[in-house]
Amino acid sequence: MNMRAAGSVFIDRHFHALTHRNYRYLWTGQCVSLIGTWMQNIGQSWLVLTLTGSPLKLGLVTACQFLPILLFSLFAGIIVDKFPKKNILLVTQSVSMILAFSLATLVLTNTVRYEYIIVLALLLGLNNTLDMPTRQAFNIEIVGKEDLMNAIALNSTTFNMARIVGPSIGAVMMAWLGAGWCFLLNGVSFIAVLYGILQIQAAPYVRKKTSREGVLKEIKDGIVYIARDPVLAQTILLVTVIGTLAFNFNILIPVFTRNVLQLGETTYGTLMSCLGIGSFAGALTMSFRSKRGPKVKISIMASLVVASCLILNGLSTSVWLCGGILALTGFFNIMFATNSNSNLQMNAKEEYRARVMSVYALVFAGSTPFGSLFAGYVADRFGANGAFVVCGLLTGILCLIIIWKFRKTGEKKSLEVA
């Protein structure tokens, strides 16, 4: 067997979603765009900390970025159901590009102020409110149910490869040229994903039947549907805890680097890359086992390990030890997120899927304002190491309560194909 044939067999066995033409276009565009996104993420956090010196104000920026998701994501799920997802993504990705160029212009012209960053964060959050459930629900249209978990795992692989590369490039860029170039390159990177979306040719699923009682009734129906399914309900509750308390790295790592380790941008970028390396390994692991399907017990195990890692990171004062713990945290974070995402999509009926994923966006990203403000407040009072420990303890306790409550929940042996 030659190298090319061996490569084809490997892709077919472990990355089968890439055999779908439409998915290849979307995935390739994301490979470029997400590197820019991570450059902007670390650039914005360091910029805010440099301007204000306040962990709480940094937490407020993150809270503002995710506040619209908290307020409007349930409504977004209904909109996603009623319009072709390709068209929605073209709009949301274009808006993200414009916002990145706007922030770059403010920084490069030395006119940036904390208040402007808050406004741009709110606008980006409003845009992401529609973008997130659209991207989640679009996967199944372009790869089908059989390859859905593989596609989600590949998305995580891409996201976390970018989490390795993006912060590394961004840290060097900030040290040499300033944060403005991180935002500028992020804006340029959106060209790749827009081109990929334009090449997609897929028959869109648009739900034609709508409730006569209006939008609020449809939202209520979606929530009741989740509450009545123990697998969906347990998964959503675990995601709520992890999304609120365990995913505050954009706040805690820069503060930890600056105030605890007494180091600068390069170390910050390195620690974020360590988180990305672990996440990348976790995504690959989930991709290799994707044909086995999602399991509730994986989400349970991963949530408890993540809680333990947060506590250990708070007790660490060594750069290398912290980097190793963050890599382990990233590994189990992605195991948890990929498995939970797949569990929700594969167990939800087609007519409810967009609404289920809008609830997922609500609890995973919409809970971030509370988590960000809480982490920022605790870091302000007790330092970043104290915040890591407190968030880890609360994560572990709440996850154990949920696990006990749903201790009789069994795995679904078969999936209903809508």
From TrEMBL:
Domain of life from the UniProt record: Bacteria
CDD domains noted in UniProt: MFS_MefA_like
One Pfam family here: MFS_3
Transmembrane stretches, start-end: 58-80, 87-108, 175-198, 236-256, 268-286, 298-315, 321-338, 359-379, 385-404
Keyword Transmembrane helix included in the entry's annotation: yes
Gene3D superfamilies: MFS general substrate transporter like domains
Organism lineage string: Bacteria, Bacillati, Bacillota, Bacilli, Bacillales
Keywords carried by this UniProt record: Cell membrane, Membrane, Transmembrane, Transmembrane helix, Transport
UniProt protein name: MFS transporter
Major facilitator superfamily (MFS) profile domain: residues covered: 1-410
One term under GO cellular component: plasma membrane
SUPFAM superfamilies according to UniProt: MFS general substrate transporter (SSF103473)
A GO molecular-function annotation: transmembrane transporter activity
Membrane topology: Multi-pass membrane protein
Signal peptide: none
Primary location class: membrane
